[in-house]
Specification:
479 residues; mainly beta; Jelly Rolls; Beta-galactosidase, Chain A, domain 5; ten-stranded antiparallel beta sheet; six-stranded antiparallel beta sheet; 5 helices; globular; disordered N terminus
Length: 479
């Protein structure tokens, strides 16, 4: 027993020796921690000598007047050169709040322009002490100082913080989710964890591993909000009870919370694809305004080398991110459809095989397509919903994911085959009788901001100038 204790003590010493955060256990008082308040927000605080989870010192902040979340910030500065771009880090801390509330944690440059250094995460702080941890890929700011920053200003109440650490981690220290349930769809083999989360996706033809990272993914995340209260996030891992059952070839997950029941369904769709859906029985006064489902944690590189890896992302006319491990580490893509995204499909692939993820939604419902490269390469779809407190939710369209061979053309072909079955896409634009002649011969789209000004404060564009430009283009196109 003494030997085990010494080993654990040694490991703890290594963690604290690597810790970028000074005085994370507050045993030496408050410094270098501080907080600031601005605008109409007000806060007080200091060291609570026995307020920690084991009767140890903890840092306590009391927000007495709320405004924006960033109007009260609890901050620990440290040298920016202790953050390496692309290096994996884990932020870990213990926190509680009275009353329970949403909190966000950030890693930022310590001065304007407040550059994000790879960490931006929200969670719910409860009235009981709870350990929170998040792994991310760092990005060194072009500044002398960085800071770990907790945003607290949007809710009145008390928050206690203790045992804060920020340490580099090796990717091999991650824990893969064991596969409890297996489903086949053509060449694709899908593995679900005991909690229904996607634990593995492999291509049986090439043996390529396309999903199943070392950072376990939840089955889903929910965003809840209502007027007058701070929004917060729940995940499948927060459910009081989880049951996975089989319905024919489909697997159904039932997640029971105190005031919600979430049901997910995943079924094989043939040709290497799977279809999934989600619905929520809401007994709470909160509105479910966003559902992130499904969530796929993929290897940070496909195969042995990342140089041939690509991410298809449909911003504007579509783009391809080359070697995302090298070019995207610690960064994310998160645009909306309709909006900057022209369609509803993503892909992650190399020369061997690829992962396809899309919503086959002919109604144009709003959503956000997420591609992040932190510990793993995360691909997910966030379905955006209206603020309707207490309303049940059922997505009216399927989300489809699976495996394919080829480059982005092959992924786009899967999406195109579905799109051509829709009324709005059954007839090509060039063959529709309501398409103007000028558009059939080619068109142009121009964007400008009517509020844009030059360095002298003059408007950069004007209605007259835009009309002149359009008239000149029209005249040239008719010659």
């Amino acid at each position: 027993m003494q030997r085990v204790f010494l080993v654990l003590l040694s490991l703890a010493s290594v963690v604290w020796a690597q810790n970028r955060i000074g005085n994370g256990d507050f045993a030496a008082g408050q410094a270098p921690w501080n907080w600031h308040q601005e605008k109409e927000a007000k806060a007080t605080g200091g060291i609570d000598p026995a307020g920690g989870p084991d009767g140890s010192p903890a840092l306590r902040v009391q927000v007495t007047a709320a405004q924006g979340a960033n109007h009260v910030q609890l901050t620990c500065p440290f040298p920016a050169n202790e953050i390496e771009t692309g290096q994996l880090y884990e932020a870990r801390f213990q926190i509680r709040a009275v009353p329970a509330r949403a909190v966000s944690v950030h890693l930022l440059g310590a001065a304007k322009p407040w550059t994000n250094c790879g960490l931006r995460s929200s969670f719910e702080a409860t009235t009981e002490w709870r350990v929170q941890s998040v792994r991310f890929r760092g990005k060194r700011p072009d500044q002398d100082q960085a800071k770990l920053d907790f945003f607290l200003g949007d809710a009145v109440g008390e928050v206690w913080l203790d045992n804060v650490s920020l340490i580099p981690v090796d990717r091999t220290q991650g824990t893969r989710t064991p596969v409890a349930y297996t489903m086949l769809s053509g060449r694709a083999r899908l593995g679900l964890g005991a909690d229904g989360a996607i634990a593995a996706l492999t291509d049986s033809t090439t043996k390529a591993v396309l999903a199943g990272g070392v950072d376990p993914a939840p089955a889903f995340r929910l965003r809840l909000e209502k007027p007058g209260d701070s929004p917060f996030t729940r995940a499948s891992t927060d459910a009081a009870k989880t049951e996975i059952s089989q319905d024919g070839k489909a697997f159904v997950g039932t997640y029971t919370f105190a005031d919600l029941v979430v049901t997910t369904r995943v079924a094989p769709n043939g040709d290497g694809l799977f279809t999934c859906g989600i619905e929520i029985e809401n007994h709470s006064p909160w509105a479910i305004t966003a559902i992130t489902y499904p969530i796929l944690h993929c290897p940070d590189k496909l195969g042995q080398d990342s140089t041939d890896d690509r991410i298809l992302y449909p911003r504007c006319d579509g783009g391809v991110v080359e070697d995302p491990l090298r070019t995207m580490g610690g960064q994310s893509l998160d645009d909306t459809y309709p909006g900057p995204l022209s369609c509803q499909v993503m892909a992650y692939y190399d020369a061997q095989a690829g992962l396809y993820l899309a919503t086959h939604d002919g109604s144009g419902s709003p959503k956000r397509l997420l591609a992040r490269l932190n510990l793993d390469c995360e691909l997910a779809i966030e379905h955006l919903l209206p603020i309707t407190p207490g309303a049940n939710v059922k997505l009216a369209y399927p989300t489809v994911f699976g495996v394919f061979s080829g480059d982005w053309y092959a992924a786009a072909e899967i999406y195109r085959q579905w799109a051509h079955q829709q009324v709005w896409c059954a007839t090509p634009l060039s063959q529709r009788p309501d398409t103007p002649i000028w558009l059939k011969h080619g068109g142009i789209v121009t964007c400008y901001s009517p509020r844009a000004r030059n360095k002298d404060g003059e408007f950069r564009f004007s209605d007259a100038g835009l009309r002149e430009f359009c008239d000149s283009f029209l005249n040239d196109s008719l010659r």
